[in-house]
Amino acid sequence: MLRHLLLFSLLLLFPAPAEAAEQCGKVSWIYDGDTLMVEDIGKVRLLGIDTPETEDSSRDRYYLKAFGIPPKQLRQIARQAKQFNIRQVKGKRVCLEFDRQTEDKYGRILAYLQLPDGRSLNRLLLEKGLAGVFRRYPFRNKEDFLSAEKNARAAQLGLWQQ
Fold it and tell me: What is the pTM (predicted TM-score) of this model?
């Protein structure tokens, strides 16, 4: 009996860690290929991916130096990524799944966005070649995302067209 009481007390003192709660809401605005607004949640940055900027940017140097992608092609892919997101999620209810880091230095929520059919928007953008993997920081789906990017590169889709 004493053993059960002790175990019960320990469970009260040290509960099992809770999983990060999933949050759901309606997408009200698409800013660009990797940033959108979800009602009652806030501005969301898609975790683990990077899409080109809609206007010339200092980030273009990275794509040009690392992958040989010229700015004109980056602008085209940026427009395509934004339009893809508008078609996929604008006005739709989606769910956000979180990783270790939940906010970026700009105060945006970092999340994997799950479409109503359960697919990941983050991964879909990689599969279509409309995004590259954001390699700078660790995240749970990094290996899977690198694999999706590799497949898009092999198929010469989007960013990876020659």
Answer: 0.85
Catalytic residue among 3, 22, 39, 45: 45
pLDDT of residue 63: 86
Give which of 94, 86, 65 is closest to 130, Cα–Cα: 86
Instruction: Quick: pLDDT tens for 141-154.
Output: 999 999 999 999 99
The yes-or-no answer on residue 45 being catalytic is yes
**CATH number for the 18-160 domain, one of 2.40.50.90, 1.10.10.10, 3.40.50.920, 3.40.50.10490?**
2.40.50.90
93 noted as active-site residue: no
Comparing C-alpha atoms, which of 103, 160, 114 is closest to residue 141? 114
Catalytic residue among 97, 108, 127, 149: 108
